[in-house]
Amino acid sequence: MLPFYYEKPNEFLPKEELDRSEKPKGFGLGGAPGRAPERVKRPDQIVATLKRIWNYLTAYRGRLIAVLIMIVIATGLSLLGPFMIGHMIDHYIMDAKDGLMAMLLLTAIVYGGQALSTWLQNIWMIQVSQQTVYKMRTDLFAQFHRLPISFFTKRQQGDLMSRASNDIENISASMNSSFIQICSSTLTLVGIVVVMLSLSPILTLLTFMVIPLMFLGMKWISSRTSRLFRMQQKSLGSLNGFVEETLSGQKIIKAFAQEQEVIEGFTQRNEKIRLSSYWAQAISGFIPKLMNGLNSLSFAMIVGVGALLTIWTDAVTVGIIIIFAEYSRQFTRPLNDLANQWNTLLSAIAGAERVFQILDEPLEVQDEKDAKQLKSVVGDVSFEKVDFQYEQGQSIIHQASFEVKAGEMVAFVGPTGAGKTTLISLLSRFYEPTSGIIRIDGRNIADYTRESLRAQMAFVLQDPFLFEGSIMDNIRYGRLEATDDEVYEAARLANAHSFIMRLKDGYHTELKLGGGGISQGQKQLIAIARALIADPAILILDEATSSIDTVTEIKIQEALERLMHGRTSFVIAHRLNTITQADKIIVLEKGKISQIGSHEQLSKQEGLYRKLVLGQQMLEA
Ligand SMILES: Nc1ncnc2c1ncn2[C@@H]1O[C@H](COP(=O)(O)OP(=O)(O)OP(=O)(O)O)[C@@H](O)[C@H]1O
C-alpha cells in the first residue's frame, strides 16, 4: 500500500532541505537575495585575485608569449607610422627628395603589418581566454558536484547559476580586451614618450600637461563606477535567484494567487539593476568624453605652440608638429584605454572573486585514504547509539539504536520534524553522525567509500526527479549499462510498460526537465522502474503525500511490493495504513526513538503510535 517515488541517491535530502530548495521562498514576498559578491576592497585582494587568474593563464604560456610578441610588433609599428609620415613631409615633400613613392609604399606596409599583428594578437588572445574560462567553468561545475548537500541548502540556485554564467562570461570578456589593452597601452605610452622626448622636449612637456587632469578625472570616475559595477553584479545575482525561484515555483505562485506580488518583487529588483547599470554606464561613459576633450586641448596647444616654434626656431619642423599631433592622439588613447580597462578589470575581478569563493568552499568530507569498497551487501543494518546535529548544540537525533535484518521492511513514524528523514540521510552518509556507529552487514559504513555505499541503495522520494531526455534514458539512469530488454522488463514489473507503449513515441518519448508532459502517477511508475533496474540491496522510500487516482495507486502499490521484495526497505511513512505489514515500525519523537515493534505490538502498547492509530481511525470513521 505504498505509493512511493524513486529518486537518485544524491537527490535525497531531508525534506526540510527539499522544501528550501524547491519551493519559492516567500512567493515573491521577498525571497532571499542572491549572495552579494564580496567587495574587492584592498589592493592586496585585487593582486591575490589577479594572481589566481594568472595561474589559470600560465597553462597557455606559449600562446601568451606569442600574443606578447604580436603586441610588441603592433605597438612598434604603430609608433613607426606617424614618424614615417613626418619624415616624408619634411624630406620628401618639403625638401622634394626622390623616392616618395617608395616611402609611401613602405608606410603602407608598416600600417598593414600593424593591422595584421593586431588581428593575430586578438585571435590568439581569444583562444587563450576561451580555454581559460573553459577550464574555470569545468572546475566550477566539478566543484558544485563535490560540495556537500548542506552547501546547496544555504544558497539560491539562481545565484550559483549567475556565477557559472555571468561572472565567468565577465572574466572571459575582460581577459580578451584587458590583457591586450593593458600591455599595448603601456608599451605605446613608453614608446611615445621616448620618441617625443628625442624629437622635442618642449612639445613633449606641453603634451604631458594634460596628464594630471586626466589622472584626477579618471580617479574620480572610477571610484564611483567600481562601486556601481559591484552593485550591478550583486543585483543581477539577486534577480537571477528570484527568477529561478519563481519559475520553479510557478504552480504554488498561481495556487496562492501571488502573481502580482511576484511581479512587484521582480520589478523592485529589476529597478535596482536598471539604476545601478544606468549610473555605472553613464558615469563610465563619461571617461571617453573627458579624454577626448583633454585630447583636443593638447592637440590645439601642440599645433599653436609648435607653429610659433617653427617660426621662431629651427628645432621644430612641420613634420615634427604632425608627428606630435598624431602622437598626442595616440598618447591619450592608451591612457583612455587604461582607464576603461580598469573598470572592465574591476568588474572581472569581482566576478572572479565570486567564482573563487565557490572553488574555495570546503568540500564534502572526503573518504578516508584507506576507505574500502562496499560490495556484496546482504542488507543487515544496525544503528548503535547514533547522535546527530546540523548546527552545533542543536541535537536532532539522540542515541538512536535499532537493528534490521536483511530483507525486512522498516517504517519510520513520527510527527513532522521528528528526524525521520535525517536518520535515513545518515545511512546514506549525506551527513555524518556526531557520534555512534551505523553498520551494514556488521561493517561500519564510515570505513567505506560513500560512492560504493550509495551504490548499494536506491531512493524513491516523494517528488521523483526525471531528467530532460527519453523515458528509456530516465529508466536506464538506475544502471547505465542496462540493455533495452532489461529496461522493458523493469518497466513491465513497475507497471509502467503499458502506459509508455500508449505514448506516441513509446520508450523514446522525450520528457521535459522534471518530467513535464506525463502525470504524477506515471512519473512514479518510471521512478520505480529506475529503482528496479538499479537492483539495490537497500531501498529508501519516502512515502508520497499527494493523492493519486485509485487505479494508479493500486498499480504503484503492486510495483512497490515487487520492488521491495527481498530487499531491506526503509520507509518514511506519512499514512499509517500503508505500513501495517512492516516488519518493524520505529516511532521517533523529537529525535529520540520512543517505540519499536510491529503494528500489532505497538497498537496494543501505550504510546504515540497507538494515539496516531486511534487518531487515524477517528478520521476515517
Ligand atoms: N539542513 C538542515 N539544517 C538544519 N536543520 C535541519 C536541516 N534539515 C532538517 N533540519 C531540522 O531537523 C529536524 C528534523 O528534520 P527531518 O526532516 O529529519 O524531520 P522529519 O521527521 O523527516 O519531518 P517530516 O515528517 O516533516 O518530513 C527538524 O527540526 C528540521 O528543522
From TrEMBL:
Keywords, comma-separated and alphabetical: ATP-binding, Membrane, Nucleotide-binding, Transmembrane, Transmembrane helix
UniProt domain ABC transmembrane type-1: residue ranges: 65-347
InterPro entries to which the protein is assigned, alphabetical: AAA+_ATPase, ABC1_TM_dom, ABC1_TM_sf, ABC_transporter-like_ATP-bd, ABC_transporter-like_CS, P-loop_NTPase, Type_1_exporter
Record's keyword annotation contains Transmembrane helix: yes
SMART domains: AAA
Keyword Transport: no
Subcellular location: Cell membrane
Membrane-spanning residues: 64-89, 101-120, 299-325
Composition skew (Basic and acidic residues), residue ranges: 16-25
PROSITE patterns, per the entry: ABC_TM1F, ABC_TRANSPORTER_1, ABC_TRANSPORTER_2
Superkingdom of origin organism: Bacteria
Boundaries of every ABC transporter domain copy: 381-615
Record protein name field: ABC transporter ATP-binding protein
Chief place of localization: membrane
CDD domains linked: ABC_6TM_Tm288_like, ABCC_Glucan_exporter_like
Organism the protein comes from: Paenibacillus septentrionalis
Disordered as annotated region, ranges: 16-38
Its membrane topology: Multi-pass membrane protein
GO molecular function ontology, one term from the record: ATP binding
